[in-house]
From TrEMBL:
The lineage of its organism: Bacteria, Pseudomonadati, Pseudomonadota, Gammaproteobacteria, Oceanospirillales. The keyword Cell membrane applies. This is APC family permease. Gene3D superfamilies: Amino acid/polyamine transporter I. It is a multi-pass membrane protein. The chain crosses the membrane at residues 39-57, 95-114, 120-141, 153-171, 191-213, 225-248, 272-293, 327-347, 353-378, 399-419, 431-450. It comes from Halomonas koreensis. Its main location: membrane. InterPro entries: AA/rel_permease1, APC_superfamily.
Amino acid sequence: MEVNKNKVLRCRDVTLYTVSAMLFMDQIALAASLGSSSLFWWAYVLLLLFLPMAMMTSELGTTYPSNGGVYHWVRRAFGFRWGARVSWMYWVNNALWMPSVYILFASMLSAFYFPDMSLWLQIAIGCSLALVTSLCTSASLSVGKWLPNLGAVLKLVSVLVLLVGGLRYGFEEGFANPFTWEGIMPASPAAIAALGVMVYGIMGTELACCSAAEMIAPRRDIPRAVLASGLLIAAFNVLGTIGVLAAVPTDQTDVTTIFAESLFNMYGREGWGGLLANLVGGFVLFTFFTNMVTWSMGTNRAAVEAAHAGEFPEVFGIVHPRHDTPVGSALLAAGVSILVMLIYGLVAETAEGLFWTLLSIFAMIFMMPYVLMCLAFIKLRLTCDEPRPFRLPLGNRLACLWAGIVGLHVIAGIVLFVVTPGEPMDWDYAGKILIGVLLALAIGEAMIALGRRQHRRRPSSQALPG
């Protein structure tokens, strides 16, 4: 992929791109399914973790503004092998996330419009969307950027409708969940398990940096965009969660249908209210699609960079001859997603069961690169003296301490996807998750080894930097 060939991203685009990537409507559903205590956890992770993560991204993204983002930062700090591992985890988590998002998409489509849809028809819809996502990822960025932009706007509109409808429902019918001090504060060791879901929900500030070489002014726009998008993401995550909690009791929620239940409770099923509920349902469904396109744009570009450096097999580095966009990595991600949906369709009893299994596997892999990002920040801050247009304040020691605290929380978040404090270990469930994670990582090691072998076989005149 040629660097600096297509500079088309402005500050507005980067801001909306980041909002589209990080304001997960599925995360709002997950948070609401945890009950009122999710509001405590939102405050906790946004202040203690999201804020320093955003500043670390701004510092690293403006100091090292090249395509690949976290891949380049980790590689610069710890060498090619760890950079390649980060790129693999980045790419494969997206390939595994895609099935869970599109199963959620199909379940919501059924809840809003087609209540008798079978699980296999939902899987067929998910497979089709995976292919469409790969096509959109391969489109010119000057065209493709409008999907994330539109998705971000529709997310903001959808959250406002949820908030207004939820508060209206609460004041007229009574709030479905308690917004009291006792209800919001975690009341048992088991409640700490929610931290895993919440930590997962605030990762992604660095995604736009995967396209830094396609930004018109990355050193100027990255900090501005991260700040603006961060404020929007924090506010709308909390507001959306409040809206859903106001209208649907936690003990009656199915995460795959929670938006339909919320909107129909708020606005009814008939007349203008029903029309609004169904319209916003369509907005939410569209944002699931744009979310996947947004992340696919970033993770597939990181995979291209790794392939061109000889760290992934050459097929990952195939790009569009005119647009210079990922083709090989995008089609491979779609293929993995389709395979996963078909395999799990054979063993899953319900869409919700399939969603949670896939979520746990990809979320654990998804969070691993952020541990390495925190370590890379610490090493690069202490050992490299490049000019830094933006710096995480507090001085070297406190900045590195804060980065270390973030990294430890990310590790805790990973563990909490299979361990519930105060409860016996469910090895049947945890075993499936851990096998899935270990298998994905083992395949990654094989892909990296294959990429290195292919790189060594190239004639020296064709060798790429590695």
